[in-house]
What we know:
This protein is α+β, with helices and mostly antiparallel strands and 173 residues long. Helix content is 41%, strand content 27%. A hairpin with a 2-residue loop joins β2 and β3. The longest helix has 28 residues. 10% of the residues are buried. The model has no long low-confidence stretch (mean pLDDT 78).
Amino acid sequence: MNEYELMTILHPRLTADETTAATELVGTQIAAHGGEVLSTDVWGRRRLAYPIAGSMEGTYVLYTLKLPPEGAAPLEAWLEVSEPVIRHLLIRGIIPYTGRDRNDDRDRDRDRDDRDRDDRDDDRDDRDDRDRGDRDMDRAEMRAPAAAEPEAVEVGAGAPEAAAPGEAEAEGE
């Protein structure tokens, strides 16, 4: 027999009594498929990351169990059609839970934040050394439209040459 962890999410419309009954029903199905429930841990109602069966909440229940390998597929088939179970995940192997010490988490988070802050400072120093090309223009220059410059016309390319105001009078005399 293999050891498994089974996480189920029960439909949020279930009352507390119905949730207890659904939890026991899953346990009896495990036994019916040749398994043995080692522990049941009801995590309670939690918000889902995305809607499942039109629900944004569900009651999480974690089971640790022993089950013969040939009993896993029929158990999962039953879970798929079970009305109170909206999602499940069966994993072979039990991951031991060692617990958390909140002080260790705070120390680890503080150290990580300090490292991240130091890394960001180093990145900023590196950015100052690279070639920025056109990005060095002042933001005001980028926003202001460029002054309209007269277009240069090629002389002798078949385009009539524009005469200056004083030249037109000289030709007409």
